[in-house]
């Protein structure tokens, strides 16, 4: 499933396009929206983007400027410009940005559908090419960096990082991380398909990880055993600085971690498509605040991943705070069926309490620590119902309750069930009930 972001400073255009894409059965897309370049950048820092449909003329920052920022985080994102102005300078600028298409708003929806379809096709071709190259490279044996593995393993066992870095045994090795700067560890747990040898799976997952890791994050990796891979990572100061927040209570590290989870989602999707392998990830806190904590963090994350996998869960992404909060001694006593019910209850409770806010796949997946694509499949498998259908049924149920039992204005009810456009809410309601919200209220 690809993720499409629609950006325009005119909400009626954004909401109209979203509705049209959701109604078009030819596409299987996770459609997101933004009403400004700033909102679009905020989304880009939290989740992977595959296709961008953006207006060119917007306040503060144009679509042309936005593309440069999006490309920094997601260089493979396909770009489609949408504008009301047929001006030669804009066309030239769009071509220089390697845009896939330049569409006038006056041309209607069909050219936009075609452009998005072509973008999906190009993404499919690129993914197929990478899979072909990966399958070819799987025939070659890659020698494991034995000494690097050994040193990282000793770190994970709690030996002081400073003494290991100064150990003459490793003096010929290049350790690219600075122990004084922010750094973290990522654990990958691989659920191998039966037709793939463990060593081949490990090497392929490592290559997928490195292929999707931007140059602005330095990496040292190690293989712990036949289904565990460990990476020591360090973001460059320039990258970390992009996540600085004016609110001192919202440190840059938290924003960077959301971006990192987006990268891990990309790796998970590629490994599933390439190998048919499920990969789950655990992410530590900032090690520069105490490298001596690496052993305890590693143990906690590995225990959390093993616990979730034992309950039949796949494609997990969990950080150290979530691991400490969720996996208490009591959770270890839960039976598999109880855990399945608990996860479904968590999903439904989150939706119920966030109807007026963000109930996207990404937001729900973050809450239960699943990959967004896997979350959708898991919910359907466990309940027999599409997750999007459940969300819409809850929005409708809440709207009906508010109409019947309150005197709230329809525009207020629309906001409470997550519609920032009254016309969009009216269209949704009429499609579900056969009458408009006002007609329904008048009949009661």
List keywords for this structure.
444 residues, alpha/beta, Rossmann fold, Alpha-Beta Plaits, Arc Repressor Mutant, subunit A, five-stranded parallel β-sheet, five-stranded mixed β-sheet, 10 strands, 54% helix, globular
Describe this structure in words.
The protein has 444 residues and is of the alpha/beta class. The protein folds into three domains: 2-137, Rossmann fold (3-Layer(aba) Sandwich), CATH 3.40.50.2300; 146-333, Reverse transcriptase/Diguanylate cyclase domain (Alpha-Beta Plaits, 2-Layer Sandwich), CATH 3.30.70.270; 388-443, Arc Repressor Mutant, subunit A. It is 54% helix and 14% strand. It contains 19 helices and ten strands. It has helices at residues 11-23, 37-44, 63-73, 88-96, 109-137, 146-156, 161-166, 198-212, 237-241, 252-275, 294-310, 320-326, 336-353, 361-368, 372-383, 387-405, 410-416, 422-433, 437-443, and strands at residues 2-7, 29-34, 51-55, 78-83, 101-104, 184-191, 217-225, 228-235, 278-283, 317-319. The strands form two sheets. It has a five-stranded parallel sheet with strand order 2-1-3-4-5, sandwiched between helices. The chain has a five-stranded mixed sheet with strand order 7-8-6-9-10, sandwiched between helices. Strand 7 (217-225) and strand 8 (228-235) form a beta hairpin. Helix 13 crosses helix 14 (361-368) and helix 16 (387-405) runs antiparallel to helix 17 (410-416). Residues 139-144 have low confidence and may be disordered.
